[in-house]
């Protein structure tokens, strides 16, 4: 029990994968920034779909197809309500990466001109760098990058200087996967829109930690992945403003996204199907809705307070731990602790932690430009979620003490 509002043992009991041993030690899973574990409610939803409803959606003239279609489109409405959007503005994708690529292909490559600029930040995931980089190369535009302060927070003065009427696209991570830094996206989006820029927020590292309202943010596009939100892999979401989606060409062509096809020409389906060629990940969408419904039934304020307590405990112990350097000390963070240990390559530290049952992620975390700017090869990253405990934070540092002796 971490508070009167949160029974951590009851919460953990809903995640069966946590109840196991790794290398003879109870599992401490601290790789939630890469993917979260799934509650029984999600596992049951997937099984129920495949055992009782499995069928293709939309045009089937039979009971199973009707049932599958109802659940699939109900899932879209669940996501729309989750983000405070309209169902026509919710596109199913494979994940955040594909969501960003859709905007880069269908907006950036269509609209950018030589001399135009795309603005991102030093801390971005590769998925929010490479699509824009390639679009700029193809169109003769320029990729501009917001630098960081020493604490790895964004240099907002530099952002103000870089932003101009040349900025046609502004793409920013809501929270950094490598650092945990929480960016002031609402204020930044407002400034970008004031100069006429299209705006996109990468929410992959945000939606599991706190509620997101795309209307409040004022953003044009918002992307996230289901597997970081207690849902299955292979399912993601792109929210887009309806008027922008209407004006965009399709990302892929084929079945489902068409209205009429002849050998001479084709016309496109209405939103959101215009961007959903082929058979979709039906089970993934249903699993994502189950994850959202499960999360909405929790006390989210209590969960957020619990994650903050985990990060505070980890930060306090890290600051007192000899030979450990925290990478990313911004005042506003989600529950991510990245660090280096004197004398140990991150990969070696991660391997030695795994021998003690502690699962972390090591390396550049798909943020090579960030690591280059910091002059380091990568970090050890412990990323906490709602089902982690204060005891597990302690176990991390007990294991690090043994790592020090090995090194």
From TrEMBL:
Keyword Cytoplasm included in the entry's annotation: no
Family: Belongs to the class-V pyridoxal-phosphate-dependent aminotransferase family. Csd subfamily.
Name listed for the protein in its UniProt record: Cysteine desulfurase
Pfam family, one: Aminotran_5
Enzyme class, broadest EC rank: transferase
Coiled coil feature spans: none
Record's function text: Catalyzes the removal of elemental sulfur and selenium atoms from L-cysteine, L-cystine, L-selenocysteine, and L-selenocystine to produce L-alanine.
């Amino acid at each position: 029990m971490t508070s009167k509002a949160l029974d951590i043992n009851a919460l953990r009991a809903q995640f069966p994968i946590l109840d196991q041993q790794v290398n003879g030690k109870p599992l401490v899973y601290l790789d939630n920034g890469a993917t979260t574990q799934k509650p029984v409610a999600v596992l049951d939803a997937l099984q129920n779909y495949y055992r009782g409803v499995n069928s293709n959606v939309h045009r089937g003239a039979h009971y199973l197809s009707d049932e599958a279609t109802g659940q699939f489109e109900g899932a879209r409405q669940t996501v729309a309500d989750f983000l405070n959007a309209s169902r026509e503005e919710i596109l199913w994708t494979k994940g955040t990466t594909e969501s960003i690529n859709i905007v880069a292909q269908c907006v950036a490559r269509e609209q950018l001109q030589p001399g135009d600029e795309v603005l991102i930040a030093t801390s971005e995931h590769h998925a929010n760098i490479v699509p824009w980089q390639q679009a700029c190369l193809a169109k003769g535009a320029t990729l501009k990058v917001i630098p960081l302060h020493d604490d790895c927070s964004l240099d907002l003065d530099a952002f103000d200087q870089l932003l101009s009427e040349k900025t046609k696209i502004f793409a920013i991570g809501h929270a950094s996967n490598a650092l945990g830094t929480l960016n002031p996206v609402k204020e930044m989006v407002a400034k970008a829109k004031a100069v006429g820029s299209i705006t996109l927020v990468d929410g992959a590292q945000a939606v599991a930690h706190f509620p997101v309202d795309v209307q409040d943010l004022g953003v044009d596009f918002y992307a996230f992945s289901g597997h970081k939100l207690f849902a299955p892999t292979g399912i993601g979401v792109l929210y887009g403003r309806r008027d922008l989606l209407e004006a965009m060409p399709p990302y892929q062509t084929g079945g489902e996204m068409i209205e009429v096809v002849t050998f001479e020409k084709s016309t496109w389906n209405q939103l959101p199907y215009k961007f959903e060629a082929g058979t979709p990940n039906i089970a993934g969408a249903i699993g994502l809705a189950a994850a959202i419904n499960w999360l909405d039934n929790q006390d989210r304020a209590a969960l957020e307070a619990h994650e903050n307590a985990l990060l505070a405990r980890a930060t306090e112990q890290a600051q007192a731990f000899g030979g450990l350097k925290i990478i990313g000390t911004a005042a506003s963070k989600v529950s991510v602790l990245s660090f280096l240990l004197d004398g140990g390559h991150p990969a070696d530290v991660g391997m030695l932690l795994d021998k003690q049952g502690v699962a972390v992620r090591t390396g550049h975390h798909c943020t090579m430009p960030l690591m280059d700017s910091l002059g380091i090869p990568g970090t050890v990253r412990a990323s906490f979620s709602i089902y982690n405990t204060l005891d597990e934070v302690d176990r991390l540092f007990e294991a690090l003490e043994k790592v020090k002796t090995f090194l």
